[in-house]
Amino acid sequence: MFLFDTITDTNFNFPGQQSLYKGKVREVYGLENDRLAMIATDRLSAFDVVMPRGIPFKGQILNQIATKMMAATEDIVPNWLIATPDPNVAIGHKCEPFKVEMVIRGYLSGHAAREYKSGKRQLCGVSMPDGMKENDKFPEPIITPATKAALGDHDEDISREDILARDIVSPADYEILETYTQALFKRGSELAADRGLILVDTKYEFGKTADGTIVLIDEIHTPDSSRYFYADSYQDLQDSNEPQKQLSKEFVRQWLISNGFQGLEGQKVPDMSDEYILSVSERYIELYEKITGETFVKADTNNILDRIESNVNSWLNTH
Predict the structure, then answer these.
(1) Left if phi > 0, otherwise alpha if psi is -120 to 50, otherwise beta: which for 277?
(2) Is residue 229 packed enough to be buried (19+ CB in 10 Å), middle (13-18) or exposed (0-12)?
(3) Does residue 1 register a pLDDT over 50?
(4) Which of 20, 121, 132, 203 is deepest in the core (most CB within 10 A)?
(5) Could you give the CA distance from residue 97 to residue 48 in angstroms, rounded to a whole number?
(6) DSSP letters of 140-159?
């Protein structure tokens, strides 16, 4: 008997609803008055593949971390957020998303480390120094963009030069995206340091509002979009060539790899038992509490879809 309901799919019909887009984890409802309602589901994506089972409270955790981090960065970068009427829901300004994710890396970890280990010394047109080992700090953070994939597709590395040559983003807009990405990573690193953490790498997504303003959208500094290390043990672990203790969903990726899955053609997602699903949920709660410094309060998961619909409708009827 599973203990909690999860959200793995939604099909709401909100007042003034005009569209519905389903991403890997979030479902975005277009509303009248140039507004969007973004539902953070409990879907888990790894290697750009959506796992068959949801993770209890994962959507709430991502939505609430993103909300807190947007509030903590709105003085340096404008964002799309207007309100959060439900633990799993954010309502904000409708934007035309840029078709790139701005990935920024302060350390040789994750995808960058895997590419480096294969012998590559360039990632997205950016050089990586020789002589580095996994999880070493880069001399300066590097921006390694990715094209934004639809549900079920793989994000792909892309260089700044290709983005401009293919006219995916204009040169003037791309300059702003780079500037915002660097400013957000600097602030995020400071916020992490206050919690005894290192912000290793992360991604940011941006869009343009109806009046042409470039704003931060989607999630920010969550364990799905970011990787954190513990600051107090970082150097000792590097010096002894041991793996870093991570605050990210890398633990899921490593479990999948150990069970023969990396999202490659012909590979089957391994079965996830109730016990494993609950252990992932507990790890996400740990991540929330460490990143925010606050105790996680579980929302009521009885009739979770009814709760969301009621809360969003109530907000829309008064705004």
Answers:
(1) alpha
(2) buried
(3) no
(4) 203
(5) 19
(6) EEEE--EEPPPTTSPPEE--
